[in-house]
Specification:
3-stranded antiparallel beta sheet, Endo/exonu/phosph_ase_sf, 7 strands, 4-stranded mixed beta sheet, alpha+beta, 33% helix
């Protein structure tokens, strides 16, 4: 199963025209989630921005002039069971679950895609330190996602390693 993510530095989403334009731009990528940094959101923005996005949103608020991160659910078919938002508006931690069937279908699709890929000169990304495998529930996969560009690459590498280990 792969999770597709786009991450953008919004440099403020207070302006309604800019926010609508960036929301449309983010939807055009057809990703599972869209991360915005520097949203400059405050608590009173949540309901209106969710209505504009027309799907689930999670926010860690900064101020009207700085910080704030925003995660928008786009095409993800699973559930977000828990989340934690940094009170300073610097990150979100999310526990995302998808069904076992969706996970297996994603792995099968990836296997077929890799089997048809004739370019074998690419080496896989370097592994990052990760915890030892723990027993997994039979019907869910949990993924930790952070709305911070600093950890985005590390998250992508962890997802790659997790996918590879599940295929083995």
């Amino acid at each position: 199963m792969s999770i597709s993510i786009i991450s953008l530095n919004a440099r403020g989403l207070r302006d309604i025209t800019k926010r609508k334009a960036l929301f449309l731009y983010a939807k055009s990528f057809k990703t599972d989630f869209c991360f915005f940094q520097e949203s400059h959101s405050v608590a009173s923005d949540a309901a209106f921005w969710k209505n504009q996005w027309n799907n689930d949103v999670w926010m860690a608020h900064g101020s009207e002039r700085s910080a704030g991160v925003l995660t928008l659910k786009n095409l993800f078919a699973g559930d977000v069971l828990h989340y934690f938002s940094d009170p300073n508006g610097h990150f979100l931690l999310m526990d995302k679950h998808c069904s076992r069937d969706a996970l297996l279908a994603g792995l099968k699709l990836e296997e077929q895609t890799q089997g048809s890929n004739t370019n074998t000169s690419k080496s896989p990304p370097a592994a990052v330190s990760s915890p030892p495998p723990a027993p997994r529930p039979q019907n869910h996969l949990s993924v930790l996602a952070l709305s911070s560009m600093e950890v985005f690459t590390r998250l992508a590498k962890c997802l790659y390693e997790l996918t590879r280990s599940l295929q083995a």
